[in-house]
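ESCALATION

Customer reports they have been waiting on this structure for their group meeting. Please prioritize. Original submission:
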Amino acid sequence: AVRLVTAAIAGTLFFAPSLYCPLMFKLLITALIGLGLHEFDQMTLAVLQDVFKDYPHHTIAHVFFVLSGLSIPISCFSGSYTIFYAFTLGALCSCFVFHLGVAFKAYRQRIPQGSLFHMSLNLLGIMWISLSISHGFFIVDRGQGLVAILLAACWSADGAAYFVGSTLGKHKIFPALSPNKSWEGTLGGIFFGTLVPAAIMIPLRRVMTALPGLSLTHYLTISFFVAVLSQFGDLVESFIKRASGVKDSGWIFPGHGGVLDRIDGLFFSGPFVCLYMRFLL
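Update from on-call: job pushed to the front of the queue and completed.
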Protein backbone atom coordinates (compact mmCIF):
# COMPACT_ATOMS: atom_id res chain seq x y z
CA ALA A 1 0.00 0.00 0.00
CA VAL A 2 2.82 2.39 0.90
CA ARG A 3 4.53 1.60 -2.40
CA LEU A 4 1.35 2.41 -4.36
CA VAL A 5 0.71 5.68 -2.52
CA THR A 6 4.32 6.80 -3.02
CA ALA A 7 4.19 5.90 -6.71
CA ALA A 8 0.93 7.81 -7.18
CA ILE A 9 2.24 10.95 -5.48
CA ALA A 10 5.61 10.85 -7.27
CA GLY A 11 3.89 10.17 -10.59
CA THR A 12 1.61 13.18 -10.20
CA LEU A 13 4.49 15.46 -9.14
CA PHE A 14 6.42 14.64 -12.31
CA PHE A 15 3.73 13.85 -14.87
CA ALA A 16 1.76 17.09 -14.55
CA PRO A 17 4.78 19.47 -14.75
CA SER A 18 6.16 17.53 -17.74
CA LEU A 19 3.00 18.51 -19.65
CA TYR A 20 2.07 21.92 -18.29
CA CYS A 21 5.08 23.46 -16.51
CA PRO A 22 8.43 22.61 -18.13
CA LEU A 23 10.39 24.91 -15.80
CA MET A 24 9.12 23.12 -12.70
CA PHE A 25 9.92 19.77 -14.33
CA LYS A 26 13.49 20.92 -15.02
CA LEU A 27 13.92 22.08 -11.43
CA LEU A 28 12.66 18.70 -10.20
CA ILE A 29 15.14 16.91 -12.46
CA THR A 30 17.98 19.06 -11.14
CA ALA A 31 17.00 18.33 -7.54
CA LEU A 32 16.78 14.59 -8.21
CA ILE A 33 20.19 14.56 -9.86
CA GLY A 34 21.72 16.29 -6.85
CA LEU A 35 20.12 13.84 -4.42
CA GLY A 36 21.07 10.91 -6.64
CA LEU A 37 24.70 11.98 -6.72
CA HIS A 38 24.69 12.27 -2.92
CA GLU A 39 23.24 8.76 -2.56
CA PHE A 40 25.71 7.32 -5.05
CA ASP A 41 28.72 8.81 -3.28
CA GLN A 42 27.49 7.60 0.11
CA MET A 43 27.01 4.06 -1.23
CA THR A 44 30.37 3.82 -2.96
CA LEU A 45 32.21 5.42 -0.04
CA ALA A 46 31.17 2.42 2.06
CA VAL A 47 32.89 0.16 -0.48
CA LEU A 48 36.05 2.26 -0.45
CA GLN A 49 36.24 2.21 3.33
CA ASP A 50 35.68 -1.54 3.32
CA VAL A 51 38.49 -2.19 0.84
CA PHE A 52 40.82 0.53 2.10
CA LYS A 53 40.37 0.42 5.87
CA ASP A 54 41.98 3.79 6.53
CA TYR A 55 40.32 5.65 3.66
CA PRO A 56 38.93 8.91 5.12
CA HIS A 57 35.60 10.55 4.38
CA HIS A 58 36.50 13.64 2.37
CA THR A 59 33.67 16.15 2.83
CA ILE A 60 35.31 18.48 0.30
CA ALA A 61 35.53 15.64 -2.24
CA HIS A 62 31.86 14.80 -1.68
CA VAL A 63 30.72 18.40 -2.15
CA PHE A 64 32.98 18.81 -5.20
CA PHE A 65 31.53 15.66 -6.77
CA VAL A 66 27.91 16.73 -6.25
CA LEU A 67 28.53 20.28 -7.52
CA SER A 68 30.44 19.00 -10.57
CA GLY A 69 27.58 16.67 -11.39
CA LEU A 70 24.99 19.42 -10.90
CA SER A 71 26.78 21.68 -13.37
CA ILE A 72 25.53 19.39 -16.17
CA PRO A 73 21.76 19.79 -15.62
CA ILE A 74 22.25 23.49 -14.83
CA SER A 75 23.92 23.90 -18.23
CA CYS A 76 20.84 22.37 -19.86
CA PHE A 77 18.75 25.40 -18.92
CA SER A 78 20.53 27.07 -21.86
CA GLY A 79 18.78 24.68 -24.27
CA SER A 80 22.04 24.17 -26.16
CA TYR A 81 23.49 20.74 -26.85
CA THR A 82 26.90 22.33 -27.34
CA ILE A 83 26.90 23.87 -23.86
CA PHE A 84 25.54 20.62 -22.43
CA TYR A 85 28.37 18.54 -23.90
CA ALA A 86 30.97 21.17 -22.94
CA PHE A 87 29.85 21.17 -19.31
CA THR A 88 29.74 17.37 -19.27
CA LEU A 89 33.35 17.25 -20.43
CA GLY A 90 34.24 19.96 -17.93
CA ALA A 91 32.64 18.08 -15.04
CA LEU A 92 34.49 14.87 -15.92
CA CYS A 93 37.82 16.65 -16.34
CA SER A 94 37.45 18.63 -13.12
CA CYS A 95 36.71 15.47 -11.13
CA PHE A 96 39.69 13.78 -12.74
CA VAL A 97 42.05 16.67 -11.93
CA PHE A 98 40.70 17.04 -8.37
CA HIS A 99 41.21 13.40 -7.46
CA LEU A 100 44.54 13.30 -9.25
CA GLY A 101 45.66 16.12 -6.98
CA VAL A 102 44.41 14.23 -3.92
CA ALA A 103 46.25 11.12 -5.12
CA PHE A 104 49.55 12.93 -5.62
CA LYS A 105 49.24 14.54 -2.19
CA ALA A 106 48.55 11.16 -0.59
CA TYR A 107 51.44 9.55 -2.50
CA ARG A 108 53.93 11.17 -0.15
CA GLN A 109 52.62 9.00 2.68
CA ARG A 110 51.22 5.85 1.05
CA ILE A 111 50.11 4.34 -2.24
CA PRO A 112 47.06 6.41 -3.31
CA GLN A 113 44.87 3.50 -4.41
CA GLY A 114 41.84 4.72 -2.49
CA SER A 115 41.94 8.13 -4.18
CA LEU A 116 42.22 6.60 -7.63
CA PHE A 117 39.31 4.24 -6.98
CA HIS A 118 37.26 7.17 -5.67
CA MET A 119 38.06 9.13 -8.83
CA SER A 120 36.88 6.25 -11.01
CA LEU A 121 33.63 5.93 -9.08
CA ASN A 122 32.98 9.67 -9.26
CA LEU A 123 33.47 9.66 -13.02
CA LEU A 124 31.04 6.74 -13.25
CA GLY A 125 28.49 8.58 -11.12
CA ILE A 126 28.60 11.71 -13.25
CA MET A 127 28.11 9.77 -16.48
CA TRP A 128 25.53 7.37 -15.07
CA ILE A 129 23.39 9.92 -13.21
CA SER A 130 24.01 13.50 -14.40
CA LEU A 131 24.67 12.83 -18.07
CA SER A 132 21.82 10.38 -18.57
CA ILE A 133 19.04 12.09 -16.61
CA SER A 134 19.90 15.54 -18.00
CA HIS A 135 18.60 14.41 -21.40
CA GLY A 136 15.15 15.00 -19.92
CA PHE A 137 15.69 18.76 -20.38
CA PHE A 138 15.90 18.42 -24.15
CA ILE A 139 12.98 16.00 -24.31
CA VAL A 140 10.65 18.39 -22.47
CA ASP A 141 11.94 21.33 -24.56
CA ARG A 142 10.91 19.50 -27.73
CA GLY A 143 7.31 19.44 -26.53
CA GLN A 144 4.85 16.91 -27.97
CA GLY A 145 4.48 15.42 -24.49
CA LEU A 146 7.34 13.01 -25.14
CA VAL A 147 8.30 13.02 -21.48
CA ALA A 148 4.80 11.74 -20.73
CA ILE A 149 5.42 8.65 -22.87
CA LEU A 150 8.83 8.13 -21.25
CA LEU A 151 7.47 8.33 -17.70
CA ALA A 152 4.34 6.31 -18.43
CA ALA A 153 6.25 3.50 -20.15
CA CYS A 154 9.01 3.43 -17.55
CA TRP A 155 6.76 3.41 -14.50
CA SER A 156 4.21 1.05 -16.07
CA ALA A 157 7.02 -1.40 -16.78
CA ASP A 158 8.37 -1.01 -13.25
CA GLY A 159 4.99 -1.50 -11.59
CA ALA A 160 3.97 -4.41 -13.80
CA ALA A 161 7.33 -6.14 -13.32
CA TYR A 162 6.92 -5.85 -9.55
CA PHE A 163 3.36 -7.19 -9.38
CA VAL A 164 3.71 -9.89 -12.07
CA GLY A 165 7.00 -11.01 -10.53
CA SER A 166 5.48 -11.10 -7.04
CA THR A 167 2.54 -13.24 -8.12
CA LEU A 168 3.86 -15.37 -10.99
CA GLY A 169 7.64 -15.11 -10.79
CA LYS A 170 9.34 -18.52 -10.62
CA HIS A 171 12.37 -18.31 -12.92
CA LYS A 172 14.98 -15.95 -11.51
CA ILE A 173 17.18 -13.87 -13.84
CA PHE A 174 20.25 -13.25 -11.67
CA PRO A 175 19.64 -14.63 -8.15
CA ALA A 176 23.06 -13.51 -6.93
CA LEU A 177 22.49 -10.00 -8.24
CA SER A 178 18.80 -9.45 -7.53
CA PRO A 179 17.02 -12.42 -5.92
CA ASN A 180 13.52 -10.98 -6.48
CA LYS A 181 13.76 -10.32 -10.22
CA SER A 182 12.25 -13.00 -12.45
CA TRP A 183 11.81 -13.57 -16.16
CA GLU A 184 8.03 -13.53 -15.69
CA GLY A 185 8.16 -10.14 -14.02
CA THR A 186 10.53 -8.73 -16.63
CA LEU A 187 8.43 -9.89 -19.57
CA GLY A 188 5.26 -8.68 -17.86
CA GLY A 189 6.89 -5.30 -17.33
CA ILE A 190 7.90 -5.04 -20.98
CA PHE A 191 4.43 -6.11 -22.15
CA PHE A 192 2.48 -3.63 -20.04
CA GLY A 193 5.12 -0.92 -20.40
CA THR A 194 4.68 -1.11 -24.17
CA LEU A 195 0.88 -1.07 -24.25
CA VAL A 196 -0.20 1.10 -21.32
CA PRO A 197 1.03 4.52 -22.62
CA ALA A 198 -0.79 4.18 -25.94
CA ALA A 199 -3.91 2.64 -24.36
CA ILE A 200 -4.27 5.54 -21.93
CA MET A 201 -2.90 8.55 -23.80
CA ILE A 202 -4.34 8.14 -27.30
CA PRO A 203 -7.99 8.18 -26.10
CA LEU A 204 -7.25 11.09 -23.71
CA ARG A 205 -5.68 13.25 -26.43
CA ARG A 206 -9.10 14.63 -27.33
CA VAL A 207 -9.48 16.29 -23.93
CA MET A 208 -5.79 16.74 -23.00
CA THR A 209 -4.15 18.51 -25.90
CA ALA A 210 -0.75 18.48 -24.18
CA LEU A 211 -0.50 14.72 -24.65
CA PRO A 212 1.67 13.48 -27.56
CA GLY A 213 0.03 13.69 -30.97
CA LEU A 214 2.12 10.86 -32.38
CA SER A 215 1.09 7.85 -34.43
CA LEU A 216 0.42 4.50 -32.81
CA THR A 217 3.65 3.17 -34.35
CA HIS A 218 5.73 5.83 -32.59
CA TYR A 219 3.90 5.21 -29.33
CA LEU A 220 4.55 1.48 -29.40
CA THR A 221 8.15 1.78 -30.62
CA ILE A 222 9.17 4.32 -27.98
CA SER A 223 7.29 2.51 -25.22
CA PHE A 224 8.77 -0.88 -26.09
CA PHE A 225 12.38 0.28 -26.00
CA VAL A 226 11.78 2.36 -22.87
CA ALA A 227 10.27 -0.68 -21.15
CA VAL A 228 13.25 -2.86 -22.12
CA LEU A 229 15.87 -0.28 -21.20
CA SER A 230 14.16 0.54 -17.90
CA GLN A 231 14.47 -3.11 -16.88
CA PHE A 232 18.15 -3.02 -17.77
CA GLY A 233 18.63 0.18 -15.77
CA ASP A 234 17.02 -1.48 -12.77
CA LEU A 235 19.46 -4.40 -13.03
CA VAL A 236 22.46 -2.08 -13.26
CA GLU A 237 21.36 -0.21 -10.15
CA SER A 238 20.83 -3.54 -8.35
CA PHE A 239 24.39 -4.50 -9.26
CA ILE A 240 25.77 -1.26 -7.79
CA LYS A 241 23.70 -1.66 -4.61
CA ARG A 242 24.73 -5.27 -4.19
CA ALA A 243 28.39 -4.37 -4.71
CA SER A 244 27.97 -1.60 -2.13
CA GLY A 245 26.30 -3.92 0.37
CA VAL A 246 23.06 -1.93 0.69
CA LYS A 247 19.43 -2.85 0.08
CA ASP A 248 18.22 0.62 -0.94
CA SER A 249 20.10 3.66 -2.16
CA GLY A 250 18.26 5.87 0.35
CA TRP A 251 14.97 6.43 2.15
CA ILE A 252 13.32 9.47 0.60
CA PHE A 253 10.59 7.46 -1.21
CA PRO A 254 8.76 5.19 1.30
CA GLY A 255 8.23 1.70 -0.08
CA HIS A 256 10.73 2.30 -2.89
CA GLY A 257 13.94 3.47 -1.21
CA GLY A 258 16.04 6.36 -2.44
CA VAL A 259 16.10 8.59 -5.48
CA LEU A 260 18.21 6.15 -7.48
CA ASP A 261 15.74 3.36 -6.70
CA ARG A 262 12.93 5.44 -8.16
CA ILE A 263 14.62 6.76 -11.30
CA ASP A 264 16.83 3.79 -12.21
CA GLY A 265 14.59 3.01 -15.17
CA LEU A 266 15.39 6.40 -16.73
CA PHE A 267 19.18 6.04 -16.84
CA PHE A 268 19.19 4.35 -20.26
CA SER A 269 15.66 5.00 -21.51
CA GLY A 270 16.00 8.80 -21.19
CA PRO A 271 18.97 9.10 -23.57
CA PHE A 272 17.21 6.68 -25.97
CA VAL A 273 14.09 8.86 -26.17
CA CYS A 274 16.28 11.92 -26.71
CA LEU A 275 18.10 10.26 -29.61
CA TYR A 276 14.81 8.93 -31.06
CA MET A 277 13.37 12.44 -30.85
CA ARG A 278 16.35 14.04 -32.59
CA PHE A 279 16.71 11.61 -35.47
CA LEU A 280 13.33 9.94 -36.03
CA LEU A 281 10.70 12.57 -35.20
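Sent to customer with the following note: The mean pLDDT is 87.
Escalation resolved.
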